[in-house]
Amino acid sequence: MVLLTSSTVSTIVSMGVVCIFTLLLFLSGYVLQQQSVKNIQHAIRPPLEPATRSREALGSAFQKRGLSDSDLDAGVDQESSLGSQDRHAKPRGNFAYLQLLSEPDPSDICSAVLFFKQLATNGTRVQDRLFMYPQEWDRMSTKKLGKPASIALSILRAASIKYGIWLLPIDMTAATSAGYSTTNTKLLRLGQIQFMQYDSVLYVQTPGMILDTERLDDVLFSRPLPLRHDKNRPESFNNEAWIPMPLRAERDADLPPVYLITVNNIRGASIETRTHIPNIHLPGFGGLVTGPWGVKPESDDGEPIQQPAYVYFSNDRDGHVKWAGNPLFGTWRSQQSEVCDGLELDAFYHDEMK
Questions:
Q1: Phi, psi of 135, rounded to the nearest 5 degrees
Q2: What is the spatial distance between Cα 132 and Cα 135, in angstroms, rounded to a whole number?
Q3: Model-level pTM?
Q4: 307: nearest Cα among 210, 166, 190
Q5: Fewest Cβ atoms closer than 10 Å to its Cβ: which of 62, 134, 182, 302?
Q6: Which stretches of 146-183 are DSSP H helices?
Q7: Cis peptide before 226 (omega within 30 of 0)
Q8: Is 128 exposed, middle or buried, given 0-12, 13-18 or 19+ CB atoms closer than 10 A?
Q9: Which has the closest alpha carbon to 98: 285, 255, 290?
Q10: Which is more confidently placed, 17 or 296?
Q11: Cβ pair 180, 186 in contact under 8 A
Q12: What is the DSSP string of 244-287?
């Protein structure tokens, strides 16, 4: 019988502990490695296949026939001739709607909540809903932020759970530390890296109002998208529906009302960002998103009038939404107040009407 000394037992126990922790460290490293591999594979995924043959034929049909000025004017009122089966089919690829704000305006925040509510309740075909804002909002006190803005942000956070909104707080230090002011364009410039997991992200300006969710989806799905640049796919660099529009954050403060953003990892070494605006002169496409001037009066004979899918609003010099010449203002304000119950959003409106 061999007796073990206390030092021998201690050595055996120590070696056992070391072996156990070494094994756990190896397993945790393996799990992290597999997660990293999956993330990299997702980031460098191949681009979508070109749109279906029927949509390609639809997109090229306007190139094959000559269009007069009257054709272009009338074409804004035409809807894309997509079959009902195509419109309700689940789209291939990964897409998102985006709204963003660089200033914590309570009315604009509530308008964004209304936008996402309408998307969630009306059955959009677009998978994700994104709201981007400066990260410093999360650190600001109610006193500095203002009580109305603080309440609006609390409503937004609650709505993010209810309506499936991804909140994207962006660190603006790179801009503010260099003496630049916080603008929508700089916010997008610093935050666009978040979009690498998407084939494309569609930004629409807030404040605004959805009139037809299904037709708003058509902005993304009724025409081939540019997506990643591909010399073998002509619509990626010569697209009749989407016009290249670079993001110039150092020069411009505001974004176009409609902006298509595509961010890709190119060969794992560089980031490609492509931005486009819709061709407003393209029949059946250019009139899907407009300002209030695109809203048509009801017909005298009761026939339904096709309205834009989304109407964005402009602000006056004081930063308030212009009500003059906006036939949707009353409806929008009423629905906005429903999602932000408790906020006096229309106090200034009544003051201006006096």
A1: -60, -30
A2: 9
A3: 0.73
A4: 210
A5: 302
A6: 147-162, 173-176
A7: no
A8: middle
A9: 255
A10: 296
A11: yes
A12: E----TTT-SS--SEEEEEEEEETTTEEEEEEEEE-TTSTTTTT
